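User: I'm writing a short methods note and want a consistent example. For ATPase AAA-type core domain-containing protein, I'll paste the sequence; you return only the C-alpha cells, no commentary, since I'll be parsing the reply automatically.
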Amino acid sequence: MNVSVQYTLNGHDCAIHLERRRVSAFLDGQVIPIDALPRPRAVVAVTASAFDKFDLPTPEGLFAKSAQRSELYRYLGLKDARGRVSTKAGIFRALESLFEATGLDTGRRLRIAHVFDYLGYEPRVEVLYRWTSRGRSFLEAGAGEGSVGYRRFLESERAVGTRDRPILGDYFFEDPSAIDQLGAAADNLQQSSDGKGTRLVADFSALRWSEDQRFRQAQQLSRARLLEMEEVSLSRASTGVSVNIEDASSGELAIATAMLGIASSIDDQSLILMDEPEISLHPEWQADYLTRLAQTFEPFAECHFVLATHSATLVSGAHPELSNTLDIEESQGARKEVSPGKSADEVLVRTFGVAQDGNLYVRQLLIEALRLVADRRTTESRFSEVLEKLQRVDSMLPDSSPMRQVIADLGRTRFSSDGARA
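Assistant:
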C-alpha cells in the first residue's frame, strides 16, 4: 500500500510518503530524516464510537505528568487502557486530561472555563473519589508503620500480580522515593476522607489553583488502583443545580466529554482527529457542531480538525471558507466537494450520493424545472443546469420512485425544445 500525506506547517511544505513499508520525509521538496520533519504540537484522537481504530496510548510511570505515554498524542475515546469499551472510560479519560490541565497557566484554565460556559455549565467540577478494597488495605498497612507498612503491602501485592496484569510495574520499585510519594498521597487525601472516599473540586475560573497537588495525588493513587473516580458532578449555569455527569443525556455527555477533553489537550498547531462525532447527537446539535468547534477553539492558532462522518446534517453546518469536504471512498482518490454550507438534503445528494422521494433538495429542483417548462423557458441555460442535476440524481432514486418518470419527461421536453429550435 502506498500512502502520501502533505501539509504546511510554519511556512514549510511537508510531506511523508509510505511505499512498500519504506517511509520517506520531505521538507520544501528536499529529503530529510523523518525525525527532522516539523510536526503538530499535539495530536488528539476523539471518538464516541465503540469501534474506533485509533491507537491506545501505553500508560507510563505512576508519577509521570500524564497517564498517557506520549506528550504529543492523546486518546479521548470509549476504551480503557486494556481496550475494554465503556461509557465511563470515555468520561474518565476526558476528565483525566482535564485535571492534568489544572497545573497549567492561568490562560489555559480560563480557556477551559470558557468551554464550560459555552456548554451551559459553571466552570467547576466536583469529583468523588472512593478507596478501593486494595486502597483501604493499603491505608490500614500504613496506619501503624508508615512507609514500612506501605512498602510491605505493595511488595505483597507485587508478588500476587501476573505478568499479564501486574499490580505495579517494576519501574515503581526501582524508584526509591516512589513508595514514600504514594504513601504521602494517601495520607494527604485521607485527612479529608469520610473513611470511604474524598471530594475534590476543580474550579477553572480561579486565578490560583488550590487543589492542584491533591488532584495529582488522586491521579497517582488511581493509577495504582488504590483509589477510583466514582462520581463526577457539574452545575448548570442557569439554575445552579448539580448534575451527575453520568445522568446527563447521551448527547450532552458526548459534547461535554469531547469539548472538555479537547480543551485540556489542545495547543497551537494541533491536529484533532474526530471519528463520527455525530453519534448520540440531536440533529440540531449536529448542524451546529462545526460552528461550536470553530468558536470554542478560536483562540488556538493554526489548528486543524479532521472529522470522519456519515452525517449530512453535520456536513451541512460546515463554513465554506473554513472547511473542505472530501470523499475518500472515490476510486480516483479524494475529491473536493463544494457542498459546505448547503442544506442537509443537498449534502445527502451531492456529497453522499443518496436520494429518496422525500428529499427536499430534489423536490426543489423538480419544482424549478417544471416552473421553467410552464414559463416556456426550456431553451435557457438555467433549465439545462437544473436538468443535468436531476439526471445525476436519477440513478440514486429507487426504481419505483415516481420522480424518475418526471425527470425522464423533462429530458424529453428539452430534446423537443432543441429540435424545434434547430
